[in-house]
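Field reference: sequence -> structure
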Amino acid sequence: MASKRALVILSKGAEEMETVIPVDIMRRAGIAVTVAGLTGREPVQCSRNVVICPDDSLEDARNKGPYDVVLLPGGMPGAQNLAESALVKEVLKDQDGRKGLIAAICAGPTALLAHGIGYGSTVTTHPAMKDKMMDGDHYKYSEARVQKDGHYITSRGPGTSFEFALKIVEELVGAEVAATVKAPLIMKD
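Structure field:
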C-alpha cells in the first residue's frame, strides 16, 4: 500500500507550533508530508519570527495531488492569508469534493468559513475566533480540544497541536500507529 500523503499549507504569519508539530507527528507515522508555501518556495516567517522553509510552492504541490489530508495551520495573519487566497479555495474545494480529510487548527478554520467549506458541520477554533466562525450560522460550535465531524478535523490552538496531529494520524493510518507514535512523546493523558 502506498504511503498516505499530507499537504500542509504555510503562509506568512502562520503559527509555528501548529505547523511544525503536525508535520513532525505525521512524518513519525510514515505519512509523506509536503509543506507548501502559499506564495512560493521561499522561506516563510511565522507569527513568532521562526522561519520555515517549504518543501514546494502550493502551485506546484497542488499539481502533485491528490492528498489524503490538507492541513491549515492557524496564526495571524497566516490564517487570514489562507482565507484570502483563491488557490487555497481551489485546493480545499477539490479536497472537499472528493471527501478527502481537511484539518484546520486555531484560526485556520476561518479559512474554511471564507471558502464555504464544511457548512453544517461541527467545528472548534481558538476561543478568539468563535464569534467569527459562528457569524452566519454556517457551523455548530464545539468546545472540544479536537473536533472531528465527517471528513473535517478542527482544533483550538498551539496547546492542542499534538492531540490534533495524533487525530489526523489515527484517521489516516489507524489508532495503533497513533498510539505507537504517541508513546515516546511523554504526553500527559
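Note: The chain has a mean pLDDT of 97.
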